[in-house]
């Protein structure tokens, strides 16, 4: 199964990176740092033609298993990860992109979270699970790594 780990964090070499890197090695997966890409927030007018999202998402669609990795920021993923997830709506709204989105129905997803808590809070995982199951993806794994301090 061709796998990619997409991670986001304010610290590109911190705890989330360490956990994402270890998971990528375990799964023989590609690892990308989402914060290196220019991804605008969702816009009803789809006015972000100059950012990296569409090409990046098309590349991600080439993988069978997509692992989303983020530290827990106030019960949520990082702002860049949230923008990435929100922008998937572009593929629902723009007629020419809709056929590409249907490829998600054959994909698996997993969640990797990191925090100074013993487990990821329910709102964090529920948002991701609810979104990706709505898109037809199959949950494969949820993993949380506890660090005594956040990065």
UniProtKB/TrEMBL annotation:
It comes from the Bacteria. GO terms for molecular function: oxidoreductase activity. The chain crosses the membrane at residues 56-77. Keywords: Flavoprotein, FMN, Membrane, Transmembrane, Transmembrane helix. It holds the Pfam family FMN_red. Residues 1-141 form the NADPH-dependent FMN reductase-like domain. This is NADPH-dependent FMN reductase-like domain-containing protein.
């Amino acid at each position: 199964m061709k796998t990619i780990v997409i991670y986001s964090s304010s610290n590109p070499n911190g705890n989330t990176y360490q956990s994402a890197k270890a998971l990528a090695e375990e799964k023989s997966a590609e690892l990308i740092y989402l914060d290196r890409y220019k991804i605008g927030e969702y816009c009803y007018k789809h006015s972000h033609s100059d950012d990296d999202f569409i090409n990046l998402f098309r590349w991600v669609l080439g993988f069978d298993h997509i692992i989303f990795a983020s530290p827990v920021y106030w019960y949520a993923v990082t702002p860049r990860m949230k923008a990435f997830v929100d922008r998937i709506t572009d593929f629902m709204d723009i007629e020419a992109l809709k056929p590409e989105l249907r490829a998600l129905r054959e994909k698996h997803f997993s969640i990797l979270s990191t925090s100074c808590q013993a487990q990821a809070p329910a709102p964090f995982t529920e948002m991701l699970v609810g979104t990706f199951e709505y898109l037809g993806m199959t949950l494969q794994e949820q993993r949380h790594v506890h660090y005594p301090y956040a990065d």
